[in-house]
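Input structure tokens:
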């Protein structure tokens, strides 16, 4: 979604198929599941600590990479979190 901030409003492709198949599109946010936060942390912490689940990150090196990293956020050039590694 961030990559679309500066563009025109996107519309779903194949809209007629969505209508004819009576599909529903429903968004959600993390806040919808805030009450399950404790359960999430209890289950995920050991998996992350053990390395069974690893975050996906795009890392740019040095302060000189910060502008490109920031611009890349809005053009979808990153995979996962966009980070700038400083020495």
């Amino acid at each position: 979604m961030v990559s679309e901030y500066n563009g025109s409003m996107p519309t779903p492709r194949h809209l007629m198929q969505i209508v004819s198949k009576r599909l529903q599109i429903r968004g959600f946010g993390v806040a919808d599941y805030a009450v399950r936060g404790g359960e999430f942390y209890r289950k995920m912490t050991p998996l992350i600590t053990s390395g069974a689940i690893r975050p996906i990150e795009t890392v740019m090196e040095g302060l000189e990479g910060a502008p490109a990293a920031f611009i890349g956020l809005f053009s979808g050039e990153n995979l996962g979190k966009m980070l700038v590694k400083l020495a």
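The CA atoms of residues 4 and 63 lie 26 Å apart. The chain has a mean pLDDT of 87.
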